[in-house]
Amino acid sequence: LFRSSMATGFIVSSFKNVAMRKSISVAMAFFIGMQVLGIRIFAAAAYQLVAYICMLLLPRNLQHKVTIWIAIFVTIVVHIYLYRLHHNGFGIASSVMASFVRQYVISLNYYDGGADPSKLSERQQYFALKDIPSLSDYLCYMFAASTIVCGPFIEFRTFRDWINLQGDFKNMPQFGQLIDFIKRFGVSLIVIFTAAYLGSFISFEHMLTAEFARQGLLYKAGYLVACIQLFWETYFSGFCFMDCAVIARSEEHTSELQSPYV
User: Fold this and answer.
1) C-alpha to C-alpha distance for 144 and 24, rounded to whole angstroms
2) Are 67 and 103 in contact (CB under 8 A)?
3) 214 CB burial (10 A radius; 0-12, 13-18, 19+)
4) Which of 30, 142, 145, 154 has its CA at a distance of 20 to 30 angstroms from the CA of residue 42?
């Protein structure tokens, strides 16, 4: 997942042709989705269209409410289903939750686009959508290679400007963040190796044994702290790789950006 996302980032950022950028991004998103979700990627694809259909068919002041309630219902159903199967289902659950956030926000952005600007914050005005996004931009956003299964979250306007090389990203250099990518990737490797080394001495299951129960309070406290550190490093390495995928796409390129919200 992370290797494919990072590779896609570099490939997409190397093209200046918008059609190629969109095609590669969506195609790789489906490839990554198939790796994680299997055939369920097609059900996930149908779910991704909820916000767009609501924007097309419902009044601006109602579409965001319907979108949010449908997204909440689907998220609850998926988690109950996985719980009853006693299956952790990381890929399915995280994909649904990531989609929930994107649909929730884009529907609110569209709602803000029709609101009185004087009642909106500066940030809301920046991300507000005056018109319904084009279907190609919407699909590219919902099926972004680096966020199809998990985060990090990116606002629609930021992604649209990046994929179309417009706005703050109009003059974005190719591979403009290669050095930043190398630095972040290096941090990821350090964390992984540290976690692997710590994991050779630490076992979560050990805390359930009779031997652990016979140990003193200081031993137990120290072992618990070590387990927490191992748990943190395991997830932090994942977040580092997610960040690497976004940096590889030069989507965090900030040296020439005008907006403080990107």
Assistant:
1) 10
2) yes
3) exposed
4) 154
Q: What pLDDT digit, counting tens, does each position of 168-212 carry?
A: 777 766 655 677 778 888 888 888 888 888 888 888 888 989 999
Burial string for 74-83 (b: 16+ CB within 10 Å, else e) reads bbeebeeebe
Q: List all residues 6 or more positions away from 145 whose beta carbon is below 8 Å from its beta carbon.
A: 4, 5, 8, 9, 12, 25, 28, 29, 32, 245
CA distance 12 to 215: 55
| Tokens found for residue 237 | 């390495």
* DSSP-assigned letter for residue 16: -
Q: Which of 257, 13, 30 is nearest to 143 (CA)?
A: 30
Task: Give the type of residue at 196.
Answer: A
DSSP 150: S
Which residues neighbour 142 within 8 Å (Cβ) at sequence distance 6 or greater?
A: 48, 49, 99, 102, 103
Preceding peptide of 117 cis, ω within 30°: no
pLDDT in tens, 117-138: 888 998 899 899 999 998 888 8
CA–CA–CA angle 48, 43, 242 (5° rounding): 60
Neighbours of 157 (CB within 10 A): 21
Higher-pLDDT residue of 170, 156? 156
